[in-house]
Amino acid sequence: MTDPYFDSEDYSDISENEVPARQQIDVPLSLCGERLDAALAKLLPDYSRSRLTQWIKDGAVLVDGKTVAPKTKLLGGEKLEVTIVQSNEEMAFHPEPMDIPIVFEDEHILVINKPAGLVVHPASGNWSGTLLNGLLHLCPQLAQVPRAGIVHRLDKDTSGLMVVAKTVPAQTELVRQLQARTVKRIYRAIADGVVPFDGVINTLIGRDPHNRLKMAVLKFGGKTAITHVRVLERFDSHSLIECKLETGRTHQIRVHMKEARHPLAGDALYGNPRHKMDEPVADAVKALGRQALHAYKLALVHPATGEERSWQAPLPDDFRRLLETLRGEEGEFMEAAPTHNEEDDDEDWDDEDDGDIEVIYVRE
Which helix (H) or strand (E) holds 136? Predict the structure, then answer.
């Protein structure tokens, strides 16, 4: 079973109480003639040979109190002193106290309202202070569940609802639902410009060939990505929209709205820094300090009871302040924003060359 947000690798919580900082080992005579790296692989089978070899090169392995090369032949009877060096990945799976807003919890699942600025999973540059660390502190049993029960992600600067599995069976079922596209995820966002009509964006998304830190709409080779867009309010320089994910690709909404010529307000990676707006609105976007994107609603079938459940998370304060500025400066709320005529649509959406990549954006 595969999913872009989950794999079956079983991570475990490693602490200093469980893994000694140093180990002293007497080399048995049976290993006479063995290279140090090969002998160490037999004496410490829980660690890969490449990792042990690196420890030797780094001086973390002493033979009779001295550092030697990995290829050094042993006679048997030597005393080894090995300093256990944990990898970043191992050190990352440590519980850390953290304030995680809980929306729902039972013995099977946990639904949280992730604040903006919180990284979901440890990775290069963020080996601690992540949601995973906080979950391990909040619910120690998650150390026995792959990835601490995380089955889908939100970007660091995206706020809103996430579901976490507290057991392996619950995780397996949630992953199945994500793969079957039956988990409903609805986002609220503020986009640059006047989004002309409700519609669906259907493209291929993959890694940007020119910038590996970004995703992009691709003509060939990407994965299918489908976003349903509904306009809630329109202002002079922005639109409040609702996005329903049919698929769950990395940065999907942000990439799709960029390709639709309406990137999200405040998006440092995909946004348009030259977008024209009044000064109070520009100040409010700057104060937001992130992309204006919030996972507003989550609906799924409970993995244990089979009951259909749904939850909503109110807009966070920073998002709401930007919205209030837009309402105060630029316009009134429109419950059902009227669509524009076809000529207006063409003018709004085709003002830049799209590099021969077709963005399929059609009325729903």
Answer: helix 131-138
Coil, strand or helix: which one is 305? coil
| Residue 188: strand pairing partners | 242, 294
Q: Which residues contact 249 (CB under 8 A, 6 or more apart)?
A: 4, 205, 215, 223, 225, 255
Tokens of 269: 């990676």
Tell me how many degrees the CA angle 159-163-164 measures, rounded to the nearest 5: 120
Q: What is the pLDDT of residues 167-180, one digit of tens each?
A: 999 999 999 999 99
79, 26 Cβ separation under 8 angstroms: yes
**Listed residue (100, 169, 174) closest to 133, CA to CA:** 100
Q: Give the pLDDT confidence of 95-108 residue by residue, as tens digits.
A: 899 999 999 999 99
Are the beta carbons of 237 and 336 closer than 8 angstroms?
A: no
Ramachandran region of residue 342, left (φ > 0), alpha (ψ -120 to 50) or beta?
Answer: alpha
- Least Cα distance to 213 among 248, 247, 265, 250 occurs for 250
pLDDT at residue 345 tops 90: no
User: Hey, what are 96's tokens?
Assistant: 């850390």
Cα dihedral across residues 144, 150, 155, 161: positive or negative: negative
pLDDT at 61: 94
Is 155 one of the catalytic residues? yes
Dihedral, CA of residue 32, residue 35, residue 36 and residue 40, to nearest 10? -80
> For residue 250, how many other CB atoms are within 10 A of its CB?
17
Question: Which token pair is 119?
Answer: 């990284």
Q: What is the mean pLDDT of the chain?
A: 84
pLDDT surpasses 90 at 137: yes
Q: Where are the beta strands (DSSP E) in 193-307?
A: 199-207, 215-218, 223-234, 238-245, 293-301
The span from the CA of 288 to the CA of 282, in Å, is 10
DSSP 7-68: ---------TTTS-SEEEEEPPGGGTT-BHHHHHHHH-TTS-HHHHHHHHHTT-EEETTB--
> From the candidates 37, 155, 157, 318, which is the catalytic residue?
155
Please choose, from the candidates 177, 102, 170, 184, the residue with its C-alpha nearest in 3D space to the C-alpha of residue 141.
170
The pTM assigned to this predicted structure is 0.69
Distances, alpha carbon 78 to alpha carbons 24, 68, 215, 327, in Å: 10, 12, 53, 77
Please report the pLDDT score of residue 11 as a whole number.
Answer: 27
